[in-house]
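Q: What structure does this chain adopt?
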Amino acid sequence: MKVLDVSAIKDGSVIDHIDSKSTLKVADILNIQNEEQVVLVGMNLTSKFLGKKGIIKIGGKIIDQKEVNKIALIAPNATVNIIKDYEVVKKFKVAVPEVIEGIVKCFNPNCVSNHHKIETKLHVVSKNPIRLQCHYCERIMNSKDIVLI
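A:
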């Protein structure tokens, strides 16, 4: 069996166990544009848990909670590893928070959050499948309706 060898990163973040079809969406969330960063994106890798998975390694970037919350909406099975001096110093599974503020646009074009400078706020009605309810207009959104800000 051939094995793909991927170099370790000294400091940064590794997002693993991404559903393969969501890998590029997660990469988009991370806004990887720094020409100095070492970035590895792997897709359709074999996974016992998911069948096929994606992985993203980013040198020099520690992802923040807002990014973790966005990833949880797109790739709910993902895990995050924080790397310092080539060692995993923190590892956790992403989790959809109970209330989502400022990261998802309400899909109702008439919602007050789409017409005034107020932060969006959605309550999680269901995590699997994902269903969100707007705090302001009370409309329910499904995963296909989610537009990240």
